[in-house]
Design a protein that fits this description.
By secondary structure, the protein is mostly helical. It contains 13 helices and no strands.
């Protein structure tokens, strides 16, 4: 469900890129900012009206869905917990930093292509400006479609017991990063209109499987602190949005093919570093510093969460002993 929600990010890109090209050619580049800025205001108003702080405050949600969501985060409707975040433990957790590193790596490639792909297609492959928007949208269309597939496969492999949570996160995330590393390098090597666009499309498309890894990982290791972890991760992940376009502008000052190859090689290298870090430090089980005294009715399988199962069993044994004494 989380990966399906994030698919909207790429659906927006698919629509925005070709539309931006049309607006820029017909009404001038300023019209792009006016149009999407106005849409942002409309979205903000809709968000304030529709979105609620929690499922218990949503008048349109069913009782079954509300109960499921609350139980999945270790709460019930009558329980309003004031969560105290263990900041030191969060900031010193290698599992958290693995998420941050992967988020940074994925966004480096994302922002590099998002901001520079139309320019690259125009300067290096000689596409017309109006057409670059449509062609630039193809990779994100592939990713938007594959996000639903990756989310389904990740859940299916866990439900069937084929993979543990840690294995799902590692295999999906690192497999995607390795594919992106290879195809970004191929795109830089080929520099052919068809071959390069195809390689970029495959590279971006495989990124969908990474989102079934690091982006949902905070819910595995610390469900009660997932929002904080994702907030910290996203803070670091926005840095590429600032640095990557600046660095690309410096590297491609002469707009030569060799300079653009360097840009792609840098992205490939960052993907590879993110892959290595995540492989060694990723965790899929509830972390010790994130455990609470609340017993969740939805208990994961011992194969996926061995530590949580032991804790629940110990608490159940203690409760049973006390009842016998009484």
């Amino acid at each position: 469900m989380a990966t399906l929600g994030f698919a909207g990010n790429y659906a927006g890109t698919v629509v925005a890129m070709p539309l931006s090209g049309v607006l820029a050619v017909s009404l001038g580049w300023e019209s792009v900012f006016y149009f999407f800025g106005s849409l942002g205001v409309v979205w903000a108003v809709a968000w304030l009206i529709i979105v609620k702080a929690g499922p218990e405050d949503d008048p349109f949600i069913s009782e079954e869905e509300k109960t499921y969501i609350l139980k999945s985060i270790g709460q019930n409707e009558d329980e309003k917990k004031s969560i105290k975040h263990p900041w030191k433990a969060i900031l010193t957790s290698t599992a958290v930093w693995a998420i941050i590193a992967s988020h940074f790596a994925e966004n480096w490639g994302f922002f590099t292509l998002l901001t520079q792909l139309p320019t690259f297609l125009k300067d290096t492959l000689n596409f017309e400006l109006e057409k670059t928007g449509f062609i630039s949208a193809i990779p994100y269309l592939a990713m938007g479609c594959l996000l639903g597939v990756s989310g389904y496969l990740a859940d299916w492999s866990q439900i069937k017991g084929y993979l543990t949570t840690t294995q799902v996160r590692k295999y999906f995330n690192c497999g995607a990063f390795l594919a992106q590393t290879v195809f970004m390098m191929l795109a830089a090597y080929l520099l052919d209109p068809v071959g390069t666009v195809a390689c970029i499309t495959v590279a971006v498309g495989f990124g969908a499987f990474a989102w079934s890894g690091f982006i949902v990982n905070p819910l595995d290791i610390a469900p009660n602190h997932a929002s904080v972890i994702l907030g910290i991760s996203n803070t670091f992940a926005t840095i590429p949005g600032i640095v990557s376009p600046l660095l690309t502008g410096i590297i491609t000052s002469d707009k030569t093919k060799e300079q653009w190859q360097v840009v792609f090689y840098i992205s490939s290298g960052i993907y590879l570093v993110g892959c290595v870090i995540y492989w060694f430090f990723c965790r899929g089980e509830l972390q010790p510093w994130a455990k609470t005294n609340t017993i969740n009715d939805v208990v994961e399988s011992p194969r996926s969460y061995p530590e949580k199962q032991v804790i629940v069993n110990e608490q159940f044994d203690m409760t049973s002993s006390e009842q016998k004494k009484n």
